[in-house]
Please model this.
Amino acid sequence: MNREDFHILEEKVYKKPLIYLDNAATTQKPQVVIDALSDYYSTINSNIHRGVHCLSQKATEEFEIARKTIQHFIHAEHDYEIVFTRGATESINLVAASFGRTFIHEGDEIIISEMEHHSNIVPWQFLCEDRGAQLKVIPFNEEGMLCVSQLESLISPKTKIIAVTHVSNTLGTINPIKEIIQIAHQHDIPVMVDGAQSVAHCPIDVQDLDCDFFCFSGHKMYAPMGIGVMYGKERWLNAMKPYQGGGEMISNVTFEKTTYNDLPFKFEAGTPAVGDVIGLRKAIEYMQQIGIANIASYENELLQYGTEKLLQIDGLRIFGTAPHKAAVISFLVGNIHPYDMGVLLDHQGIAVRTGHHCTQPIMTHFNIPGTVRASFALYNTFEEIDTLVAGVARAKEMLQ
Ligand code: PMP
Model:
């Protein structure tokens, strides 16, 4: 699908055609996104919001149009519920820090899951340490599905927030977040969804999900690196204290007292990545032209095909076998170390990720050192999967 828009895919590595299957780590960028960055810097680069001059006004306008594009893309009620950050990691840190300083006290409890990325574990651990709060964990089963039935028993009157991933970057599992949110809301507990792995692969409607926060990165959805989004419901954002202090986020500053700016600026201290925000908008428009549902169904075909073909290799085990998965396949072959497999695949031009994928608790669960992970995007092909399967079989022969 649309391969010609991604010139990097014409690159050769070790004189072999590049087969890029590390999309859960970051996707490649279509030319329209690269052009948008170049156009921004060559025509309207300027600091935004505070300038009276023409360039500043143009840059501000483009920046705020992008905010609206993102609002519509995830079906947020208001554009001021979209806060720009550097990525999912910063978005989650923002929620943990701001929600935490406002609402978490000694003895309170925070629920996350066993399949979280470290980005959705460590910020909550910081908070627990600072506030004397406690972290509780929803486990997952052998297929890599969350044991949602255990959620009720983890919830207590002290539970203040639940933070859970929409899609696991290691197992590929698509979690039933709507159900989790419904359970949480019956107890008046807000839910933060880590959407880093879902936003490029399925349609998102934050109002339908009724999530309180939704965090994601641009670079996993064909946009530049270093830009991300924290969506928060207006009532939470208004109630929360800001995350970082600086320019733009204030209304009035004196040495005695500072008052804060309106939403979303209260959470956007300092000069933002204007060009990257515009790049994110272009990436979203690009995906919308293809259609998110079309992307999802094509990637699902790749997933089914890849799963079937890889399982034909004797001794290959897949970690994450839930019925509803995003296009991520984590595997091991016999007792071959994932790193060795990754290096041999690389020499054949195939880029996969190896290791713990920033999800060490998942590795502990399965008692494995790591996995090899192939993850697909809209530009991958069935032929590339055939090459991957042949490459894995070849590497197996060499290593065993
Ligand atoms: N959550 C999940 C599920 C992820 O896969 C990732 C990136 N691997 C992150 C959070 C963090 O994203 P970033 O590094 O772009 O901030």
